[in-house]
């Protein structure tokens, strides 16, 4: 459509046209942002567990809800960098599941499960929540519940990961003794 048709006789863009243009720009931008901040879905936790055991790293699971802005903040600011940065073989395995979802996934024990069942297993009732577990799905640190409202989330996540690494190191030591 020629630009001249978008402007009325007074040289002003009609409000309806302006709203459509802004809505289209917002929709295009929000779609790109959503794709950019996606974490791998928890689909085959048995496979992830085997990989975690081989690499001696924890599995980090984000329990989220659709349209949860706190979930997006935790995902974008903390878990995506965790999944992408550092030495590739030493990075934790980071996955996400929708805590209210009945969609099938494979649990650590190779049984059928869902995001809802996993949330119940870890007694998760708040989104976002982050569980740091070993290769069998055992919690290695207390579940982090809620979003980053105090600016301390990074420190809490670092402490959970440090506790997980200590627990994994201790279990490796016990295996070799």
What would your notes on this structure say?
By secondary structure, the chain is an alpha+beta fold. The protein is built from six helices and six strands. The strands form two sheets. A four-stranded mixed sheet has the order 2-1-5-6, sandwiched between helices. Strands 3-4 form a two-stranded antiparallel ribbon. Strand 3 and strand 4 form a beta hairpin. The N and C termini lie far apart (76 Å).
Provide the structure class: alpha+beta
Strand content: 5-15%
Helix content: 40-55%
Largest sheet strand order: 2-1-5-6
Give the N-terminus to C-terminus distance in angstroms: 76 Å
Task: Tell me the number of helical segments per DSSP (H or I, 4 or more residues long).
Answer: 6
Mean residue pLDDT: 84
Radius of gyration: 21 Å
Strand segment tally: 6
Instruction: Report the uncertain regions.
Output: 21-36
Silhouette: globular
- Major sheet attributes: 4 strands, mixed
Helix/strand order:
HHHEHEEEHEEH
